[in-house]
């Protein structure tokens, strides 16, 4: 029996290999599986992976839409660690399109979430802190 985690891992392998078509096909399969099982967390994880595909293809608006949907599911479901990861991904897209203030806000929100769940010293949170500092310096508020 297939599970969402295995499909997510396959999507990540496809993305790492630059196989956007394979990743997209596996995303559709994973999305159908998540929806058939009522797995909102799985659905959000697939949305997050789909956003990477759209971002890689240059469709940043669609990437942000999918990340927003994933963030809502994570927030409503209480998946705070996954919400922080999703906000981080949103910040990357905003940085890419030049919305540095929005990116800074999202990084700060992601860090605050990590800190609130006791992961403020986690390697990922420290990485976010570095991005916050770099953006503040870039925006002149260093």
Write a structural description.
The protein is mainly alpha-helical and 142 residues long. It folds into 2 domains: 1-78, Serine Threonine Protein Phosphatase 5, Tetratricopeptide repeat; 79-142, no CATH class. It has helices at residues 4-16, 20-37, 40-56, 60-77, 80-96, 100-116, 123-138. The radius of gyration is 16 Å and the shape is globular.
Note the topology:
Blueprint: H1 4-16, H2 20-37, H3 40-56, H4 60-77, H5 80-96, H6 100-116, H7 123-138
Helix pairs in contact: 1-2, 1-3, 2-3, 3-4, 4-5, 5-6, 6-7
Counted by DSSP, the helix tally is 7
What Rg, in angstroms, do the CA atoms define? 16 Å
Q: Which structural category fits the helices and strands? A: mainly alpha
Low-confidence stretches: none
**Terminus-to-terminus distance:** 52 Å
Oligomer: single chain
The ordered H/E elements are HHHHHHH
Domain module tally: 2
| Name of the CATH class of the largest domain | Mainly Alpha
CATH superfamily of the largest domain: Tetratricopeptide repeat domain
Mean pLDDT: 94
Could you give a short account of the major beta sheet? none
Global morphology: globular
């Amino acid at each position: 029996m297939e599970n969402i985690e295995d499909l997510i891992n396959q999507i990540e392998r496809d993305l790492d290999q630059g196989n956007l078509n394979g990743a997209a096909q596996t995303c559709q399969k994973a999305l159908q599986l998540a929806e058939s099982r009522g797995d909102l967390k799985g659905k959000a994880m697939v949305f997050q992976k789909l956003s990477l595909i759209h971002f890689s293809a240059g469709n940043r608006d669609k990437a942000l839409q999918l990340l927003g949907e994933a963030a809502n599911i994570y927030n409503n479901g209480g998946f705070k660690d996954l919400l922080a990861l999703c906000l981080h991904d949103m910040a990357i897209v905003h940085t890419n399109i030049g919305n540095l203030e929005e990116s800074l806000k999202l990084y700060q929100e992601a860090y605050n979430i990590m800190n609130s769940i006791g992961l403020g010293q986690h390697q990922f949170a420290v990485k976010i802190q570095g991005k916050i500092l770099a953006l503040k310096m870039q925006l002149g508020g260093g």
